Amino acid sequence: MASDRLVPADFDPPTELVTEDFRLEPLGPQHNEADLDAWMSSVEHIRSTPGYPDGNWPPPEGYSLERNLKDLERHAADFPAKKGFTYTVLDPADGDVIGCVYLYPPDREGFDVSVQSWVRASHAHLDGQLAEAVVEWIAADWPWKRPDRYGR
């Protein structure tokens, strides 16, 4: 595995996770407006979610649509480079963005992947369910054995 790659070169990362309550697909520029609305409507809720304790994200003042698009393009580029994997969380009923999942290199010793997720405040009841579904997905479909779940 190359030092800048999070998974082996021959590993094909999953492109979706589907449950009765949400669906994950790779985050991309097509999600820009809905993604921005989702997190800007839920700044305080996200900041209180395990994994976001430093208070740096999301910024209370928000982003412009253009600034958010740059972030989504960066996350989208990480996916084929296998440097990180960001998924948008969609409501299966209407396809609206209700959250996000990030699988990136760990920033703490003893782990092989950093796992963070959030849901918008209006879907707070799904927060724990999403976190658990993602860790089960990692165990079943990903090459990692020691996910850093930030206290979850």
Keywords:
152 residues; single chain; six-stranded mixed β-sheet; 6 strands; globular; alpha+beta; Aminopeptidase
In short:
Its EC number is 2.3.-.-. The protein has 152 residues and is α+β, with helices and mostly antiparallel strands. It is built from 4 helices and 6 strands, in the order ββαααβββαβ.
Tertiary shape: globular
Q: Overall pLDDT, averaged?
A: 94
Instruction: Output the CATH topology.
Output: Aminopeptidase
Overall structural class, as computed from helix and strand content, comes to alpha+beta
| Structural domain tally | 1
Structural Rg: 15 Å
- How much of the sequence is in beta strands? 15-25%
Care to describe what's here?
It comes from Citricoccus parietis. With 152 residues, the protein is an alpha+beta fold. The chain has a single domain (17-148), classed as 3-Layer(aba) Sandwich (Aminopeptidase). 30% of the residues lie in helices and 19% in strands. It contains four helices and six strands. The protein has a six-stranded mixed beta sheet with strand order 1-2-3-4-5-6, with helices on both faces. Helix 1 (32-40) packs across helix 3.
List the helices and strands and how they pair.
Elements: E1 17-18, E2 23-26, H1 32-40, H2 43-47, H3 65-81, E3 85-90, E4 97-104, E5 113-119, H4 127-141, E6 147-148
Parallel strand pairs: 5-6
Antiparallel strand pairs: 1-2, 2-3, 3-4, 4-5
Helix pairs in contact: 1-3
